[in-house]
Design goal:
The protein is an all-alpha fold. The protein contains 19 helices and two strands.
């Protein structure tokens, strides 16, 4: 029962959806396999890492380490939600079984889930490397067994950290005043490291002339990884062996050390889980499932003062954000936080290249396309803003006020976040790439208008989608698909037109880009206004 709930697979309940999901995973598996083989083959053929046909094991080991770290964080978060925050704890804890049964059952489900994820992602990536390096045939079935053991080790390790992680997360959730400063501090630290790394890149990059210099840097990074992150390197040798450039060791001594270390932790973890963590789990899961009910606040009540309709709707959006709603806005915010860093890095990279006038055309068109794709595709998340509210939105539609009082507040937070990010990204890109101030200002204004216009279109797709009946399965998905398709079409068409305009000069091309943005934003606003009025008339008739 728990596995079916986690995997969302049911051949009896929804055969079509299950087959589509399985086929998607198969396509992803094949795509990653071909990508891995092609990348390693090209790197070995062009002697990127060595003078012979060879790619050091540290390269796939770094990729695997990155995936394992982020996969472990996802595993830890998911395991915490499953063990302590799942709503079905209220029912499962009343069943005639011990807490150990439920605890171990949830761990078993996550083992199968983690094994499936490693098989779909890690297996084809490592398979491509082994095929290029000429691994012995017996290592291919061994890779499946080794990945199963690695998945078991990951789940056992996560079970050791899940209760401390749950206690820490619960502590921060109860003290929301600490969460925002911590998140800001973490983001600033990561952003600072990224900016420092970008600034270390020399202003002039000539890879072909100074290849020996950059080759030494690459070798230093690989050797540093082997020295300071040796457990990941040892785990990779356990999975795929170790090629040396002239021979292939299937089971080097380092792989034995990795196996013994993981086996020791994996054997001790179940004992620790059953005899130490399990009693705490039963108490914590009972508290998380049942302890939140019936609590009455002891704080002093506040006077309930009436607010203007627009301010009241804006306050509702703020409360939704505080309560963890609006999941689309969270992903949108992450995209816009990363966009200025991407603009800085690409601006610095392209500035260091010796570009011809034609090359500058291509760079500026590419940067425009990247900005538009990230921002407009992120705006498509707004196409499920109303349907996610369910009955709350249906209730707001019955208020004796024009629809715009309850529609436009949805645009405030995404609009402000996206606009600030696009302005910052435009000026960072212009500063490091060398674009003049007037053109960078025109670029920023154009991007903001394109983004706000797409936000309005996405909102309109949601609340008046032709086949949308609110609270019906799939209605928000149709609106989001339409908004995503619009984002890609507008991005591609705008980049193509800007490429044609760019031949006429820098400033004239950006002026025409601004004219396009004004036209698109005006049309989007007009359609949004007409649809909003139409919806208001329909509500008045009801």
């Amino acid at each position: 029962m728990l596995f079916r709930e986690k995997s969302h697979l049911s051949f009896r309940g929804d055969l079509k959806r299950t087959l589509v999901k399985l086929m998607s995973l198969l396509v992803l598996f094949l795509a990653l396999g071909f990508l891995s083989y092609g990348a390693y083959y090209l790197a070995a053929s062009f002697n990127v890492f060595s003078t012979v046909f060879y790619v050091p094991l540290a390269v796939p080991s770094m990729v695997m380490a990155f995936l394992l770290l982020f996969g472990f964080l996802s595993l830890l978060s998911g395991l915490r939600r499953s063990l302590f925050l799942s709503p079905d704890n209220k029912i499962l804890l009343t069943y005639p079984c011990t807490g150990s049964t439920l605890f171990l059952a949830r761990l078993a489900v996550y083992f199968v889930h983690e094994l499936g994820r490693n098989f779909v992602v890690q297996f084809p990536l490592l398979l491509g490397y082994m095929a290029v390096m000429g691994a012995p045939g017996g290592l291919y079935p061994w890779l499946l067994l080794a990945l199963a053991f690695l998945s078991f080790f990951e789940v056992m390790l996560a079970s050791l950290f899940v209760i401390p992680y749950h206690l820490l997360a619960s502590f921060l959730e109860e003290r929301r005043a600490l969460r925002l400063p911590l998140l800001i501090a973490l983001f600033l630290a990561l952003a600072g490291l990224f900016v420092a790394a970008v600034l270390l890149v020399p202003d002039s990059v000539d890879i072909f002339t100074n290849w020996s210099y950059y080759s030494r840097i690459v070798q230093g990074i690989l050797n540093g990884f082997k020295a300071y992150l040796s457990p990941f390197y040892a785990a990779t040798t356990f999975l795929v062996g170790e090629p040396t450039g002239y021979s292939y060791q299937a089971f080097p001594l380092l792989s034995l050390y990795a196996f013994l270390g993981m086996a020791l932790l994996a054997s001790l973890s179940p004992l620790f889980d059953v005899f130490v963590l399990n009693p705490f789990y039963l108490r914590l899961s009972s508290g998380s499932a049942l302890g939140g009910e019936g609590k009455v606040g002891a704080g002093k009540g506040k006077e309930n003062r009436p607010l203007p309709p627009f301010v009241s709707a804006l306050k509702k959006e703020t409360l939704l954000l505080k309560s963890g709603g609006e999941r689309g806005l969270v992903s949108l915010s992450l995209a816009f936080l990363a966009l200025p860093l991407l603009a800085l890095a690409l601006g610095k990279l392209f500035h260091g290249m010796d570009l011809s006038s034609r090359g500058r055309y291509y760079v500026e068109v590419l940067m425009l396309l990247i900005f538009l794709l990230v921002s407009l595709a992120s705006a498509s998340a707004l196409a499920r803003s109303f349907t996610e509210e369910g009955m709350g939105y249906l209730l707001s539609r019955s208020y004796p006020r024009p629809s715009f009082f309850f529609i436009l507040p949805k645009l405030v937070f995404p609009g402000v976040i996206g606009s600030l990010s696009l302005v910052a990204s435009s000026f960072l890109y212009a500063l490091f790439y060398g674009l003049d101030p007037a053109s960078s200002a025109l670029l920023a204004a154009s991007l903001v208008l394109f983004y706000l216009g797409t936000c309005l279109s996405a909102l309109a797709f949601d609340f008046v989608h032709p086949s949308s009946t609110f609270l019906q399965d799939g209605s928000s998905l149709k609106g989001e698909r339409a908004a995503t398709l619009l984002a890609f079409l507008v991005s591609a068409a705008t980049a193509a037109l800007f490429f044609l305009y760019r031949n006429e000069g820098v400033l004239p091309s950006y002026l025409k880009l601004l004219a396009l943005a004004l036209l698109y934003g005006g049309i989007s606003a007009a359609i949004f206004y007409l649809k909003g009025r139409y919806q208001g008339k329909e509500e008045a008739r009801r």
